[in-house]
Amino acid sequence: MNDAVARPTPDSPDEATPIPATIDVPDESLPHGLSAAAAAWPDRVAVDFLRSTLTYAELDAAVARAAQALLDLGVEPGDRVAIALPNCTTHVVAFSAVLRIGGVVVEHNPTYTAPQLRHQLADSGARVAIVWEKAARAALGAREGTALETVVAVDVSRDLPTTSRLALRLPVRAARATRAALRDAVPDGALRWERLVRRRGPQLPASHPYPASDAVALLQYTGGTTGTPKGAVLTHRNLVANAVQCEVWTRTVRASETLYGALPFFHAFGLTLCLGYGLRTGATLVVFPRFDPAAMVAAQRRRPGTFLPAVPPMIERFTTAAREAGVDLTSFRFAFSGAMALPASTARAWEEATGGYAIEGYGMTETSPVALGNPVSPERRPGALGLAFPSTQVRVVDAETLQDVPDGARGELLLRGPQVFSGYWNRPEESAEQLLPDGWLRTGDVVVRDEDGFVTLVDRIKEMIVTGGFKVYPSQVEDLLREMPGVADVAVVGTPGGDLGEKVVAAIVLDGSVPTISLAELRAWASERVASYAVPRELVVVTELPRSIIGKVLRRVVRDDLVGRRPE
């Protein structure tokens, strides 16, 4: 038995319901949503972590115990609390507990080393860190020069079903390997989460005040294309607004969705869709510790999903794995894709397998993160970022003058709405560069908007290549080079080019159908398809391209690597 409901068919009346142009943002904090869900649907499964489940009533009680434990540790409203955990039930609980008592969550990648953690901990001023056992040593090693006082280590294996936990003790190779992947010795100086949050321990009184809607809820670090991570300051109002916008845009019927949480919760995309929108709407959140198509196929057999937020490679691999396993995906109403362009072939395969939609959206950490989306209807436009979310305003301007450009012309995308952040933590100058005095956010993305309001991404201003006075948009060149026989993937970047300013360089990954590709062959192919100034002047063949945790190609890293290879 599962909590999924029948997915509306593509011609259901729901899709004819107009999306409102504006929304009312409730004057409440994010934890209000979980409390309301627990009151409305106490027996509905809230979290399913590899078959171990919590109902909404049980989740609410677990959050209350964790919240009281944090109060007992001395966490006060406004205190920053670092979380460095993989996706698991404890991540859901810890996130919600910090917010419930007015703390500020600071999410971190749980695989960070001590030097990587140290910068963000020092910048945020976090006094308490809740971390995976495998990250405890790095967190303790990162304390020097920071305000960090307390490290709490989490045994993720305790979130597993009882049978799975017992199996970890077996003296067999598979059990030892799984145990080693999940657990680590807790170093001296770290507290244990399970000792702080006892099943029969004290709970936060229901009368404890909730944080105000304008209180800071989250510092989400983002490097963008500049390298140095900055903490985007997001309030409860920002996060609630984006959750409501997502609910309205997807025409969600509350307590009906089964949401697959394979995106990392420490990333803005996974955090808002799973821990914001998901819990607020009474969805059943099926949690995966990492993206694993086989595990998702197994979950689909026992608890069919209705909504998959994901990046394109995840959608493609899940669709393929389900087809090869003979598993039906028609329970899914739609997949919401972000972070990179959604290939038409990936969208087509998903829609053929599910009968639902694969829609593309757009956002940034600074917009909590979703700002644009394609309609969840036949009006979707593959390849376009979509239309403005409710209560979100869009401008396309000349990047130098900030004057609006006509529809159909390229320009920088500006956004304004209730989900737009209030600035970067302790960085007033960079905040002023990104946020204009009248509330418009400069995205740094070059787009085109058509007469119907659909926005299409062209490129990033900071990654645009200027060569011989001409502007080259890397993604346009990449799209053409990907069509060249033998090319599996490509990144186009600009490197120092003397009198030219920058030189166009292509880093390609071969697909194995040809032994290699020469610069002459690549230039001949490109010359027939792009302007002469955009044709790569240099070619580097690589085995793989560096990608972010959610799969986006890191052009800055490619560029830095290519520049570093050159002799002085």
From TrEMBL:
Keywords: Ligase. Residues 477-552 form the AMP-binding enzyme C-terminal domain. GO terms for molecular function: ligase activity, forming carbon-sulfur bonds. The keyword Magnesium does not apply. Residues 1-25 are annotated as: Disordered. Residues 36-425 form the AMP-dependent synthetase/ligase domain. InterPro entries: AMP-bd_C, AMP-bd_C_sf, AMP-binding_CS, AMP-dep_synth/lig_dom, ANL_N_sf, ATP-dep_AMP-bd_enzyme. The keyword Ligase applies. This is Long-chain-fatty-acid--CoA ligase.
